[in-house]
């Protein structure tokens, strides 16, 4: 099996820079620019660093599986899940921003078994590099379902 480039390789450096640019464009234009990454739809995921307590936002490719959103825990290097994945899974709920400035409160859960396989095939159809990445690592890449979560006032999140 061919291994993915190390997380410090020039390839990953370029990926990180593209993600930062994508996030900046998305945030500045409320998703009018930066709402896709190589043709796949993008959302912004808010999370809090487990060690630092610092608020962070990552642009992620997503699948709209209404009422859920689905993301993939890729780009963590060959042997480790990405930091945002660990941060997200440590949280009861968080928010995502969709194109148009629409914010949703969500709670994460891992997809497993037949649900994971069905979602994985749809995600790969949406963004082919996921399959290539999966072939370069022995790590089972997590599929995360972001389910609607009640907002802080106890009512359901607004879906525009």
Task: For this entry, give a set of tags.
single chain; Pnp Oxidase, Chain A; oxidoreductase activity; globular; eight-stranded antiparallel sheet; 160 residues; Split_barrel_FMN-bd; alpha+beta; Nitroreductase; F420H2_quin_Rdtase
Walk me through the topology.
Layout: H1 10-29, E1 36-37, E2 40-48, E3 55-61, E4 63-65, E5 68-72, H2 83-89, E6 94-98, E7 102-110, H3 113-126, H4 129-135, E8 143-148
Description:
By secondary structure, the chain is α+β, with helices and mostly antiparallel strands. The chain has one domain (10-148): Electron Transport, Fmn-binding Protein, Chain A (Pnp Oxidase, Chain A, Roll), CATH 2.30.110. The chain is 30% helix and 29% strand. The chain has four helices and eight strands; from the N terminus they run αβββββαββααβ. The protein has helices spanning 10-29, 83-89, 113-126, 129-135; strands at 36-37, 40-48, 55-61, 63-65, 68-72, 94-98, 102-110, 143-148. The longest helix is centred in the N-terminal third of the chain and has 20 residues, at 10-29. It comes from Amycolatopsis camponoti. It catalyses: oxidized coenzyme F420-(gamma-L-Glu)(n) + a quinol + H(+) = reduced coenzyme F420-(gamma-L-Glu)(n) + a quinone.
Number of structural units classed as domains: 1
Structural class from helices and strands? alpha+beta
The number of helical runs is 4
Q: What is the ordering of alpha helices and beta strands?
A: HEEEEEHEEHHE
- Shape descriptor reads globular
CA radius of gyration is 15 Å
Give me the count of strands: 8
**What is the name of the CATH class?**
Mainly Beta
What's the overall average pLDDT, rounded?
Answer: 84
CATH topology: Pnp Oxidase, Chain A
Strand content: 25-35%
Question: Do you know the CATH architecture?
Answer: Roll
Distance between the termini: 44 Å
The proportion of residues forming helix, as a percent range, comes to 25-40%
Within CATH, the superfamily carries the name: Electron Transport, Fmn-binding Protein, Chain A
As residue ranges, the low-confidence spans are 1-6, 154-160
Largest sheet: 8 strands, antiparallel
